[in-house]
Amino acid sequence: MGKLSDLIFSATNFVANKIQRPAVILLYHRVTDLSADPQELAVSPANFDAQLQHLQSSYNVLDADRFLHYVKAGKPFPERSVLVTFDDGYADNYLEALPIMTQRATPALFYITTSKLNTSKEQWWDDLERVLLTGRPLPAALSITINGVAHHFNTATAATTRDAYYDLQAILRFCAPDVIDQAMQYLYTWAGCDGEGRPTHRMMTFDELKAMAASKYVRIGCHTHRHPAVGMLPYAQQLQEIGQSKEILESLLQERMQHFSYPFGGRKFLGSKRYYNADSIKACRELGLEMVCANYYGQVHTWSNPFALPRILVRDWPADVFRQKMERFFKL
């Protein structure tokens, strides 16, 4: 966040926290060491371990069931309550995060995108990085039409190619899944590569997900099938995207899904661009989901919308930085 938004966040939440003690939902994506992480989604295992140690020593870490109880009851949370969540379903959630969670006896709620489970395929933003930023020889220019709009990029140097990556990422995140798939197929041909993903960036296998779900420290929620910004889709497509992930997970795990999080999930609405909207909430209600998380800074109080709860995105912060961030979130 910028300095102005930092000040607004601090002032607003200072007042809210004076009225009622807050709870905080933390958002993680990955726990692993990566050689490159342009989206800054990975927390190193060492930092994750230090973060969990601090949470256990200084906060009241609730599991998803207890957190949902307070949300549904409309009751103030216990002092310094925290819920740990993960988005997407990367394999490292099972291979690297879960062992640390188990060692530190820390529960978490995992929101799973289902289309790439049990495959070698990467999520499209990782795939875009694989095509553009992993050092393969590329043509000096890229011309691509997305949703009927022609885009032109300079890919002659590492710096301009990196700029193209971020520009394309910003464009594609507001596109329908079929449009994203078409763009990626075009990029494979342009770059002279295929769609085979990297083992370091795969999603969980079905067996890994089942094993993780069996842990007493894990609760599973859904996160759409193909990870679109659902607010850009008509209601019927939103219902299908959310419902398909719910159905797949319920069939695979033999348990009812109560939890969902919006892909991307930011509350910043850019003109007609929406990460989620009133139709998204309507779809979640129709599907019987009980608690839904977004991805914007804020704390949870009894008056928070249970179908658009704020979360704090955790970066690869060392212990001292994490400690300072947490104190700020609970500042009274």
Short summary:
This protein is an alpha/beta fold and 332 residues long. Helix content is 42%, strand content 15%.
Describe the structure in your own words.
Helix 5 (124-133) runs parallel beside helix 7 (177-191). The strands form 4 sheets. Strands 1, 4, 5, 6, 9 and 12 form a 6-stranded parallel beta sheet that branches. This protein is an alpha/beta fold and 332 residues long. Strand 7 (141-146) and strand 8 form a beta hairpin. The protein folds into 2 domains: 3-118 and 203-329, Glycoside hydrolase/deacetylase (TIM Barrel, Alpha-Beta Barrel); 124-191, no CATH class. The longest helix is centred in the C-terminal third of the chain and has 19 residues, at 235-253. The chain contains 11 helices and 12 strands.
Count of DSSP H/I helices? 11
* Rg from Cα: 20 Å
Instruction: Name the structural class.
Output: alpha/beta
In the CATH hierarchy, the third-tier topology of the largest domain is known as TIM Barrel
Order of SSEs, N→C? HEEEHEHEHEHEEHHHEHEHEEH
Provide the residue-averaged pLDDT. Answer: 93
Based on the structure given, which CATH architecture of the largest domain is correct? Alpha-Beta Barrel
Beta-strand level of the residues, as a percent range? Answer: 15-25%
The counted number of beta strands is 12
Main β sheet profile: 6 strands, parallel
Sequence stretches where pLDDT stays below 50 over 5 or more residues: none
Any idea of the CATH class of the largest domain? Answer: Alpha Beta
The dominant shape is: globular
Instruction: State the distance separating the first and last CA atoms.
Output: 21 Å
